[in-house]
Specification:
Length: 317
């Protein structure tokens, strides 16, 4: 078991190192000069050269990569060209919005998808299965930002019961802050609920066809008990995989929704850094997104060992 964890942790570190190099290389070949963006096209060549030296842009590629990597490992993510403040502080500040938003959205997704997926599997080819299928198809097909616009029109403009955007900050109180996140969380969570519903339905149907379910039914177990005590727990592995991937997607993919609702989250920071050609912020934010995806995959792999005893036995051998 410990050897398995050590191997996967080593693979995690190697993957992160490779991803960091790829991110730095891609940012290097992007068109545009950060110094020229900051000073404007009318700046003299001497001024541009001085700013490039100050920003370290005149150094060789590999040296700048090692300097950036070393700073990242020590928590020094550099200074933002645009804001003039440490990037680490910017990311932490924006995570106070993005992390609660993603958690809120994943609760909505799981809270809808698991019951609906199990219901559809239990009522296969019935009317309930048809309705759940319609819900999943529509929620997957409709973009999250468009759902957000519809929610603003209905609950903010028409009914006036929810804020149309902005974030008052957690210092304004728990309810005002959560109220500002409800509509964005629904807009983010609904499309993911459609995906998770279909995965849950398919996983439960696969398990319901197994021999041990027929054996449990033959021993007198009711259909409901066989479903919830045996089928659903054994169908959790693909469901847990999707939930882990969804959480990272909700953090990294919230750019459009955060812009629709004018939320000062990490997605909006990435959008602003891209528009302002702030390479330092872009590199660090993208690396954070990638590291989060890789780390969540690692956590899901470890979760498999606790969910499926067969995997634990194989790891022990």
């Amino acid at each position: 078991m410990i050897a398995v964890l050590a191997r996967r942790a080593g693979g995690l570190l190697i993957t992160l190192l490779a991803v960091s190099f790829l991110i730095f290389a891609v940012m290097e070949i992007l068109p545009g000069d950060p110094a020229e963006v900051m000073l404007g096209t009318s700046a003299s060549a001497e001024t541009l050269a001085a700013l490039r030296r100050e920003m370290g842009l005149d150094q060789p590629f590999l040296l700048r990569y090692l300097h950036w990597l070393g700073g990242t490992l020590t928590g020094d993510l550099g200074m933002s060209y645009t804001y003039g403040v440490p990037v680490a502080g910017l990311i932490v500040e924006r995570l106070h919005v993005t992390i609660p938003l993603a958690l809120f959205a994943i609760v909505i997704s799981v809270g809808l998808a698991i019951p609906l997926g199990v219901l559809a599997a239990a009522r296969r080819n019935g009317f309930a299965d048809f309705l759940v299928g319609m819900f999943s198809h529509v929620s997957i097909a409709v973009p999250g930002f468009w759902v957000g616009l519809l929610l603003i029109i209905l609950f903010s403009t028409t009914l006036g019961i929810m804020p149309a955007g902005g974030f008052p900050g957690w210092q304004a109180g728990l309810w005002p802050a959560l109220k500002a996140l409800i509509l964005p969380a629904v807009a983010l969570g609904l499309p993911q609920a459609g995906v998770l519903t279909r995965v849950t339905r398919a996983a439960v149907l696969d398990v319901l066809g197994e021999d041990f379910i027929r054996t449990a039914r033959a021993k007198g177990l009711t259909p409901r008990a066989a479903l919830w005590q045996h089928a659903v727990p054994n169908a959790l592995i693909p469901v847990v995989t999707i939930i882990g991937l969804q959480f990272t997607f909700l953090i990294a993919g919230a750019v459009l929704v955060e812009n629709v609702f004018n939320l000062p989250g990490l997605g909006r920071l990435a959008y602003q850094a891209l528009a302002q050609r702030d390479i330092v912020v872009m590199q660090d934010v993208v690396l954070f997104f990638c590291a989060l995806v890789i780390l969540m995959n690692f956590v899901v792999d470890i979760a498999y060992l606790f969910i499926d005893p067969r995997l634990r036995r194989e790891a022990g051998r």
